Amino acid sequence: MLILAPTTTAQNNNTIQPTISDRITAFQSGNIQELYETAMSCNRLSTNTDPTRRCHIETAQKAADSDQMKIAVNRACTTANPPPVINPGHPPRPPPSQPFCLPGDICQTIRHTTPHKATGVNADSTDSFIDLVYANIPQVNDDLQYIFNQIYINNIPQPIKHFFSDVYLFCLHKDPTDASKLRPLGIPNAMRRIIARHVAQYFKPKFADYLLPFNFAVGIPHGSATVINAIQLGIEKYISNNEQQGLPPTRAAVFFDLSNMFNNISRVEFLDIISASFPELIPLIQLFYDNPGTVHYKLNIVKWATLFME
Questions:
Q1: Long-range contact list for 284-289, CB < 8 A, 24+ apart?
Q2: Which residues partner with 184 through β-bridges?
Q3: pTM (2 decimals)?
Q4: Which of 187, 205, 236, 271 has minimal CB crowding within 10 Å?
């Protein structure tokens, strides 16, 4: 601290290298008292409460004279006390009302939603939202954006939150000859389906980047329908037709009933991943999964029953 202390006004004519060299010599010679008095007698330029432009240029010139051109340029280009901005031209930005906000345009997502799905008295169709968007009423579109933003940030009244965790059970026949073989489907309400589709589309690049080290896929035209139809045609040609003619099949079909991955996902692990990698989705995920969902299913034509889903 004593060796690198600022120089006094009387010493300003000397460059910094000889000054430091003299102080090191005094320290090695044991002249600590003299070194201390010299270091403590400095008059810092920074203590001047009203530095002038001339003083500012002089300090830059002294640095240049000492071959410290980088410091000299910085001093010459930097204003000691920049003038205050009287009129910035724009009012200060207000703080955000919430830490999260629905990204993208929800109306654009609704426009690309397939119509006439989940229709009927026992289902909640998205057609009413599609009709509203295609009416092209600016105020309506703004209201839809606002409503879905409240859903996204989980800022909706408590009595209606269960509508976003409940599902309605429907079953599809897997085998037309065996009515006991059913494929269960849990269908949520239309608003949850819309915002889930919107989030999936908007965050698709981020989801893909997260899954890239672990998940690989091969894309083909028409997707899985190509594989299914190719297998069915092959079975007809090489197995079924031969059996109808009394001939042995020339191919064998092997099917694997793999474990359903959705039945093996830990909800705790899922929420940990969301918190660590997708924190902007936490409010929406809490709305969907914080409380046990209710599955509504029909016992007969007029009577409904429920069960809890955890």
A1: 284/151, 284/152, 284/153, 284/154, 284/195, 284/199, 286/154, 287/151, 287/154, 287/156, 287/161, 287/164, 287/165, 288/164, 288/165, 288/192, 289/165
A2: 171
A3: 0.57
A4: 205
